[in-house]
């Protein structure tokens, strides 16, 4: 049987995100077997073509931090104007009413929203499991959408009665947490090149898990060869808690527990100091920068230009939709650029630098050296952006326009060479039905 060979042809610009930052005009890309076969092939032998005239092609965007279950609790009254800890205390009782069906609906909503924004690969951090919910619910829901998925098994083990922030009803016993982590890795984690599903382990935060669980989780993850993820140094409250409870700043706390290294990435890190940034650079510890959420919660401006200059791996994340209310990676890229410029000047960071964070940077943070670049041998995760739209009319630089004129919807999205979005529409699921189901679940939560 003839193997499918898809040729994306006539792209106005292909922004490869390779080491040199190569951008190719009037370019074509040949895909075979889910992999990029050639750029500008002389004899493509294509069995299928996709015209990209007037379009910019980038690697698919990569989301390094999300809480998809929160998609059913956007703009909740009482939490709209609160700092992190107050916001959490408002929402914990609502999240305690989540069900497996709600987790599935929220996951499909979040993934569909991401796909339509050009995101081909995403992590997810699910750290509460009320009413029989399991990470399996997210994994099963994601299979229908077609994105490359890195769900993390989160956890909370220190409730209010033990000095933690979450209510006691939402915490789990630590032995049970570790058993379920091992079960999930054994059942779902795929180590093969081009894997569509990889599991990570993700105790929630310094204020919701014990130091013992952090250590034990790191040992288990390294024994099983999976990545580690948590929240760190998100705002001033977070720093105060760390210093009061552990007698040190978050960077020293992470290092003491084995939570630095190329297999670790931390969300936010808004309040890292220079010594902590240097520690993360020296150990290749990754960071998920979530600028919109950090603004929404008043957490501050993460020093990502300093991190990048130091050599810290940095990607972008939309964070949960209860602290962002949106899930668009180009919006995060634009916000990242604007925040660094308002803090440090207009020459602090460029549109291409933040677009790189949204693509290759995110792939690096998630440990995917097979994604995030348009070059032969890389997986065929590609976003095709129509630059003939009203929003980009008059733009002289189409690559920078993706950030500065955005956020744009993606025209076509390919994951592993398969069209997940075509002409702005989901190909494998009914987006309108997903939205209806999510609305119904949200109404039940609010009831």
Please render the helix and strand layout as text:
Blueprint: E1 5-15, E2 23-32, E3 35-39, E4 48-51, E5 55-59, E6 61-63, H1 84-95, H2 100-116, E7 119-126, H3 135-143, E8 148-155, H4 174-188, E9 200-203, H5 211-224, E10 227-232, H6 236-246, H7 250-256, E11 264-268, H8 274-283, E12 286-289, H9 291-296, H10 304-310, E13 314-316, H11 329-344, H12 351-365, E14 382-386, H13 398-404, E15 412-415, E16 418-422, E17 425-426, H14 431-446
Parallel strand pairs: 1-4, 1-5, 6-7, 7-8, 8-9, 9-10, 10-11, 11-12, 12-13
Antiparallel strand pairs: 1-2, 2-3, 5-14, 14-15, 15-16, 16-17
Search tags:
alpha/beta; nine-stranded mixed sheet; TIM Barrel; eight-stranded parallel sheet; 14 helices; 17 strands; 2 domains; 447 residues; Urease, subunit C, domain 1
Question: Overview of this structure, please?
Answer:
- The protein has 447 residues and is an alpha/beta fold.
- The protein folds into two domains: 5-59 and 377-426, Urease, subunit C, domain 1, CATH 2.30.40.10; 61-365, Metal-dependent hydrolases (TIM Barrel).
- Helices cover 36% and strands 21% of the residues.
- The chain contains 14 helices and 17 strands.
- Strands 1, 2, 3, 4, 5, 14, 15, 16 and 17 form a nine-stranded mixed β-sheet that branches.
- Strand 15 (412-415) and strand 16 form a beta hairpin.
- The mean pLDDT is 96.
């Amino acid at each position: 049987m003839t193997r499918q060979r898809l040729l994306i042809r006539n792209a106005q610009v292909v922004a490869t995100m390779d080491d040199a930052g190569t951008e190719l005009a009037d370019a074509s890309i040949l895909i075979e077997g889910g992999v990029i076969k050639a750029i500008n092939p002389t004899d493509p032998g294509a069995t299928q073509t996709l015209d990209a005239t007037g379009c910019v092609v980038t690697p698919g965007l990569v989301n390094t931090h999300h809480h998809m279950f929160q998609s059913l609790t956007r703009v909740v009254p009482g939490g709209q104007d609160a700092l992190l800890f107050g916001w959490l205390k408002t929402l914990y009782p609502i999240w305690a009413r989540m069900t497996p069906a709600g987790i599935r609906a929220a996951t499909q909503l979040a993934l569909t929203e991401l796909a339509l924004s050009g995101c081909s690969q995403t992590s997810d951090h699910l750290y509460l499991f009320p009413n029989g919910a399991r990470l399996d619910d997210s994994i099963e829901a994601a299979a229908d959408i077609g994105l490359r998925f890195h769900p993390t098994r989160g956890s909370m083990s220190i409730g209010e009665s033990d000095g933690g922030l979450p209510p006691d009803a939402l915490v789990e016993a630590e032995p049970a947490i570790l058993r379920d982590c091992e079960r999930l890795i054994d059942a779902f984690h795929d180590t093969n090149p081009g894997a569509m599903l990889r599991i990570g382990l993700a105790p929630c935060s310094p204020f919701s898990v014990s130091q013992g669980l952090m250590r034990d989780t790191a040992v288990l993850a390294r024994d099983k060869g999976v990545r580690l993820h948590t929240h760190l140094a998100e705002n001033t409250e977070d720093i105060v808690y760390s210093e009061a409870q552990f007698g040190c700043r978050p960077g020293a706390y992470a290092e003491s527990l084995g939570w630095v290294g190329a297999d670790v990435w931390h969300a936010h890190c808004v309040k890292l100091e220079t010594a902590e940034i240097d520690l993360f650079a020296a150990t290749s510890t990754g960071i998920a920068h979530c600028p919109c959420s950090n603004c929404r919660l008043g957490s501050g401006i993460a020093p990502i230009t300093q991190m990048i200059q130091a050599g810290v791996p940095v990607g972008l994340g939309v964070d949960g939709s209860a602290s962002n209310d949106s899930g668009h990676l180009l919006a995060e890229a634009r916000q990242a650029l604007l925040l660094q410029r308002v803090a440090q000047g207009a020459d602090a960071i460029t549109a291409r630098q933040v677009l790189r964070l949204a693509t290759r940077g995110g792939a690096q943070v998630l440990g995917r050296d097979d994604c995030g670049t348009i070059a032969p041998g890389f997986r065929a995760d590609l976003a095709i952006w129509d630059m003939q739209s009203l929003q980009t009319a008059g733009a002289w630089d189409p690559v920078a326009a993706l950030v500065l004129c955005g956020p744009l919807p993606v025209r076509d999205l390919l994951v592993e060479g398969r069209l997940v979005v075509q002409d702005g529409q989901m190909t494998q699921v009914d987006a309108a039905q997903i939205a209806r189901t999510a609305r119904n679940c949200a109404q039940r939560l609010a009831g």
